[in-house]
Design a protein that fits this description.
Largest sheet: 2 strands, parallel
Number of strands: 2
Structural class: mainly alpha
Number of helices: 6
Radius of gyration: 18 Å
Shape: globular
Order of helices and strands: HHHHEHHE
Distance between the termini: 49 Å
Strand order of the largest sheet: 1-2
Strand content: under 5%
Length: 135
């Protein structure tokens, strides 16, 4: 019986990890949805359920190094910070001025954008050591 519950937990964690990866990818294009927490949650789920999926995530070309650097406290590359903040504010301002009519929703989006901006700016900026190039 214990083996069945371990297998069930394994598949629940793999499923959750996959959902978190999907939400993280959506968050790349939808700035109000945070990418990093979802990718870190996916890594945690995969680490506890499947070495195969965990290593796939950490070695992924798009966000593997990003996750490793964040987990190790090295920070986020300046290029990623600039791109994230640019997409965030373009999307939020477009929504606030051209889409939304409800004032309290406009204010809420601006507060969320300010909070995300503050978080991104307070995260350490990662630079490669040795040659001084930005990652």
């Amino acid at each position: 019986m214990e083996r069945k519950s371990n297998q069930l937990l394994k598949w629940i964690l793999i499923t959750a990890g996959t959902i978190f990866v999907g939400l993280g990818i959506i968050g790349i294009f939808l700035p109000i949805l945070p990418t990093t927490p979802f990718l870190l949650l996916a890594a945690a789920c995969y680490a506890r359920s499947s070495k195969k999926f965990y290593y796939w995530l950490l070695n992924n070309k798009l966000f593997g190094a990003y996750i490793k650097n964040y987990q190790q406290g090295k920070g986020v590359p300046l290029k990623v910070k600039v791109l994230t903040l640019s997409l965030l504010w373009i999307t939020i301002l477009f929504s606030v001025f051209l889409i939304l009519q409800i004032i309290w929703f406009r204010i809420l989006l601006l507060i969320i954008a300010a909070g995300v901006t503050l978080h991104i700016l307070t995260v350490k900026t990662y630079t490669k050591k040795g040659n001084g190039n930005i990652y």
